[in-house]
Write a structure and sequence with these properties.
Blueprint: E1 3-8, H1 20-33, E2 37-44, H2 47-52, E3 57-65, E4 68-77, E5 80-86, H3 88-91, H4 109-124, E6 135-139, H5 140-152, E7 161-165, E8 173-174, E9 195-196, E10 199-201, H6 202-209, E11 212-215, H7 218-223, H8 227-230, H9 234-239, E12 244-246, H10 276-287, E13 296-303, H11 309-321, E14 325-332, H12 334-346, E15 351-355, H13 359-368, E16 371-374, H14 384-391, E17 394-398, H15 401-406, H16 412-417, E18 423-425, H17 430-444, H18 447-459, H19 465-479
Parallel strand pairs: 1-2, 1-6, 2-5, 6-7, 7-11, 11-12, 13-14, 13-16, 14-15, 16-17, 17-18
Antiparallel strand pairs: 3-4, 4-5, 8-10, 9-10
Helix pairs in contact: 1-19, 4-5, 5-6, 10-13, 11-12, 11-17, 14-18
The structure holds adenosine-5'-diphosphate (ADP).
Length: about 475
């Protein structure tokens, strides 16, 4: 029988997405299937998930799971198996997965995701008839408690577990007062269990108890040993050092491929880059930019401090002043949104912004812009620079985390060897970003060189092949089972 993995995540494309986690959780089943691993994805039953599921079967019922009635639904997500935690008291709500329609976090998030973890542990430990798993893979703090319940409150033999950190900034840290309501034994209240700085740490618990911790790039795996990136958990990362690995995310080529992308005006490949022009015209129109052959930058991002968007705002006058244009798609911090609106008003036709979330426009932006700016202060892996590489939209990135690992800076040595794929800069501040933009504009003016950088990026392999193999190897190592 194939090695069977339960992958617990709070979001997965195409059903529910707020960020990169969804892209990864959605792509992983196919990536490891190619290696002979059968992965079942376990998701909370948000209204959108229940609706998109189509045919479903009830395969288990809980009379009370941390206080509420729940059911387990079985269905499919594309070609792969899906289990959904149908607990209306926690998940049948309008709004986002973690917050209401005003962006306010749900006050009972600890309860919702503890219950989700408890359910995952029940499934993994064989409580659901006909379902048998060899390993549990939990993503981020929302699924981390699966490992805690499995290790600390299960009477079944404990399965091997993997805890993947997609972003250390989100830890699921709660007041100690919730501890008695988690249904864990008193012994779990310890630094070896769920206790963290006097409260309950969901991600911390998963990291403490998992057999292996992974994060989504080798550089980030090293960075989180430092306070600046570890955000309070650097000590635990160092303590578990041997068990912390970095596996880069891939991109789903079925979704992100300019040769087959139905969302863009003109399909193209590395050998037909001239066709990109139609896509450039299309985004000029979509964003209301003036027409022209000068460089168009794009940004597709959460508008937050992590993403360096405050620094981006500072350089916009310069960017417009040297003949650049910007098409920005994103949403987030209200102060940043307001500053972007002001910049757009100062530079009509040159700086254009679209506040909101728009999947099709994100594809069109990668296909039509010349370069994508990713000035993140920290970036566990980052996906938009990988999409940029695949689309010949040259990534201009801060040298951190996965950005450092996936983009080859166009320095003189890389240019001489013909291997450059983008532009990197050190330190997220005005002067560093400004000079990276200057460097990009200068490269863009050298048409031959620019084409080579675009082609190098498009030919670099950002697919899931290598990462799917790495995860499958890890599962085999932990289970002692050949896939
Ligand atoms: P993070 O998960 O930290 O937000 P990533 O780069 O890993 O950052 O992933 C972000 C994902 O969300 C990418 O698929 C990106 O294209 C998408 N995205 C971000 N903002 C928007 C937006 N406003 N509209 C459409 N897609 C967006």
């Amino acid at each position: 029988m194939a090695l069977s993995v339960l992958s617990a995540a709070s979001e997965a494309v195409p059903l529910v997405k707020t960020g990169g986690l969804a892209d990864v959780a959605g792509a992983l089943p196919a990536a490891v299937a190619a290696q002979g691993v059968e992965m079942t994805t376990f998701l909370p039953g948000y209204p959108a998930v229940a609706k998109a599921m189509g045919r479903k079967r009830v395969v288990h019922k809980w009379d009370s799971l941390l206080g509420h009635k729940a059911r387990l639904l079985s269905g499919r997500i594309g070609d792969h198996k899906l289990l959904v935690f149908d607990c209306p008291a926690f998940f049948a709500r309008d709004g986002g997965p973690y917050s209401d329609s005003k962006g306010q976090d749900w006050a009972d998030n600890w309860h919702r995701f503890a219950a989700f973890g408890r359910a995952a542990a029940d499934i993994a430990s064989g409580k659901v008839k006909g379902r048998r798993f060899d390993l549990v893979h939990a993503h981020d703090w929302q699924a981390a408690m699966a490992i805690a319940y499995l290790k600390l409150a299960s009477d079944a033999p404990v399965l091997p577990s993997v805890m993947t950190i997609h972003n250390m900034a989100f830890q699921g840290y709660y007041d100690a007062a919730i501890f008695p309501r988690l249904g864990l034994p008193q012994s779990a209240w310890s630094v070896d269990g769920v206790e963290s700085y006097g409260g309950v740490g969901f991600l911390k618990a998963g990291m403490q108890l998992a057999d292996i911790i992974t994060t989504v790039s080798p550089s980030y795996a090293a960075e989180i040993r430092q306070p600046e990136f570890g955000m309070g958990l650097e000590g635990l990362v160092a303590l578990r050092g041997e068990r912390v690995r970095g596996i880069l995310n891939g991109i789903d080529r079925a979704v992100w491929n300019p040769e087959t992308d139905e969302a863009i005006a003109a399909k193209y490949s590395a050998n037909s880059l001239n066709k990109r022009k139609a896509n450039k015209r299309a985004i000029e129109k979509a964003f209301g930019l003036e027409k022209g052959d000068g460089p168009v930058f794009t940004v597709v991002s959460r508008l937050t401090w992590q993403k360096g968007m405050d620094v981006l705002v500072e350089v916009l006058d310069h960017l417009a002043g040297i003949g650049g244009r910007l098409a920005l798609l994103g949403s987030g911090d209200k102060a940043i949104e307001a500053a972007l609106h002001e910049a757009a008003a100062r530079h009509p036709g040159r700086i254009a912004i679209r506040i909101g979330y728009d999947e099709a426009l994100s594809h069109q932006s990668q296909a039509g812009a010349d370069a994508i700016l990713v000035p993140s202060r920290f970036e566990p892996c980052g996906l938009t620079q990988l999409y940029g590489l695949a689309y010949g939209c040259v990534p201009v990135v801060a040298r951190t985390g996965g950005l450092a690992d996936t983009v080859i800076d166009a320095n003189p040595a890389a240019l001489a060897q013909g291997v450059a794929t983008g532009v990197q800069f050190d330190g997220v501040h005005y002067h560093a970003l400004r000079s990276a933009i200057d460097r990009t504009v200068a490269l863009y003016a050298q048409a031959e060189k620019w084409r080579e950088i675009q082609r190098n990026g498009m030919k670099s392999d950002s697919s899931w092949n290598a990462s799917g193999r790495a995860y499958a190897d890890l599962y085999r190592e932990l289970t002692g089972k050949a896939a």
